[in-house]
Amino acid sequence: MPPKTRAPYQPFEYLEAGTDYREFALAKELERVPPSSYPLDADRTKRLDRILATAPLVSSHDHCVVMPEDIEQIHDYARERRTWTGYAGLAAAGVDVVLEAFLDGMGGWRWDDVLFDLGMRYSDIAHQDFLYRAETKADLDRAKPAGKCALVSTLECATMIEDDVDRVDVLYGFGVRVMGITYSESNGLGSGLREERDGGLTDLGRATVRRMNKLGMTIDVSHCGGQTSLDTIATGERPILITHAGARGLWKTKRMKPDEV
User: What is the mean pLDDT of residues 192-206?
Assistant: First the structure.
């Protein structure tokens, strides 16, 4: 995929590093690892080129943040709550749409932290014009023709709503368009994939699924246990996503989904 062009911009360049925020040595966005390619014959190359020329290239699950050069600093970096968006990497990848999973889990999925993280990242995104927030289908459709990248805000679980379903509406208002039910650990809505026993969706979980359906917020069950995933499918009236889990029949681990899901 050919790279996209963008105006030069460094995250949070409108602030003074070391004065307004703690500065970390960050990993290189480009040329950090050797490039590689998968060999295709002429017919498949032609087909791929045709698809990429006409259809949007979508990354269905990503963490588009630049990580610390010393990965041992990842928790300190996340706690500063000023993570850098990888604009240069996104442009080089040529991606049209990215479903960005915000790193709120580093703080334990607390409500205030989630809103703070969304707002902080949005503030930086608003200071450049290559990556933009997408909240409607029309927003997605204009990315490729404009040579830009549309960001769909996602959260990997709904733990932060606690016992208040109305918080789903608030998150929708903050631009979140995809959300999981649980992370790998259980919460008040259902069971995560790490649990020994999967109790399925709770009453709160079912109410949350129905509210997400009414709002138009897509559900991702990638981190849910098998029964919780099945209950989510049965309760909801809209398609769900499994953006980053594979088939357990091919790799026998809880991280993958059983065939019935």
Answer: 96
